[in-house]
Amino acid sequence: MIKKYHPSDDYSLIEKAYKLADDAHKEQKRRSGEPYIIHPLSVAIILAEFELDKETIVAGILHDVVEDTAVDLKEIELLFGKDVAFIVDGLTKFEKGTFEKEEYSAINMEKLLSYAIQDIRIAAIKLADRLHNMRTLAIKRTEKKIPYSNETLHYFSPLAERIGLFTLQRELEELAFSYLHPERYKQFREKINNYTKVYVESYEEFITKLMKEDTTHIIT
Predict the structure, then answer these.
(1) Which of 53, 68, 151, 161 is catalytic?
(2) Is 15 marked active-site?
(3) pLDDT per position as a tens digit, 162-198
């Protein structure tokens, strides 16, 4: 995927990041039971879909290693440079300690935004991280889905809009809405699907008629 848009053919940094992350997360699994490495790789794929640079892809792969494994920022900087280390640092939460849940969320959001002001790639990775977590939110309990979806709408959707990731923003909002208002979402999806079916049928009918007619006068 990266080869399609990146001018360089040197992907050694990405390969090195994958090997480090795969080793660091090797004993960890997600709630679904799949290897944890699937998550950072999925984040990297989302970033590549938006054609972001190699350093961003690398940091996306590594975004959880300092927070969740024994790898530290000094090692990241030594292996991948100051830019990648700074990005990973901006994405790494503080230790929970004695903070209450809301206070802990607030200070981590403040840290994220203060770092993102200095390097917007931090916001892009966090949004890709949030999108993948929203795509896999079904495995969590209902009491986890609701606050997570609310947070997505209140904080991350506006952030996506602010930095111009509109496709990502729309998907975040749709996923959040599907968990916050499942019945209304189902009704809307049915209407949209029905409309799409009618539109496609009408379009195909129009094309068929058009092909049967002499269109020379239209072309000339």
Answers:
(1) 68
(2) no
(3) 999 999 999 999 999 999 998 988 887 777 776 666 6
